[in-house]
Every structure is written in structure tokens, then in C-alpha cells.
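Feature request, filed as a ticket because there's no other form

It would be nice if the structure record came with a short human-readable summary line next to the C-alpha cells. Right now we just get the raw output. Example of a typical job, pasted below so the devs can see what we mean:
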Amino acid sequence: MTSSPGILEQAVLDVVPGREPDFERAFGEARSLISASPGFLGLDLLRCLEKPSRYLLLVRWETLEAHTAGFRQGPSYARWSELLHPFYSPFPVVEHYSSALSTSASVV
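Raw output as currently delivered:
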């Protein structure tokens, strides 16, 4: 059995229209809070082309508990919430995934 590649957290973030620049600035500050959390492996914040006030947040964690217990119950989460939660409408649903199948493009 091989070791797990970690957990992928995903959240679709619908930001109040017109507040995208402020959200991106706040996320720039919030990024340092999450990246300092034990078990954090990396993140991507993607902006939707069809709906510019929608973002996709993908965060890689070593374990589910690194996110749910470590970060969300840790000392930095209150500041994270203060920075980002006012921008969401509606509040996002967060889900966690583990790899079931992976394929990469072949290099010839």
C-alpha cells in the first residue's frame, strides 16, 4: 500500500459583486495565516472566467485533521474569518477529497 498524497480541500467562494479587489487584497493577508498552519501543503485561488465574482479555493493538507482540527480550531482561524468571511454571499460549502484516480499528460 502506498502512502496517501494528502487531502484536497475545495470551496467555491462567491464574493459580493464589486468587492473582488478587496477580497483579493484580504486573501493576500490571510494566505500567510493558513500557510503557517502545521500540515498545510499549498493552495491555489482561481478566479472564474464566466462569473468574475466566483473563486475556487483548493488547499492541500497532509491530513483531514490538519485542516479541521489544526487550522480551524487553531489560533489563526479567528483572524482568517475576520478577513474573509464578510465577502461571501452565500457562505461557501467546504469539502475534502482524496485521490481516487490520477492521470498526467504524457511527455513524448
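Something like this underneath would help us a lot:
The first strand starts at residue 7 and ends at 14.
The CA atoms of residues 30 and 83 lie 7 Å apart.
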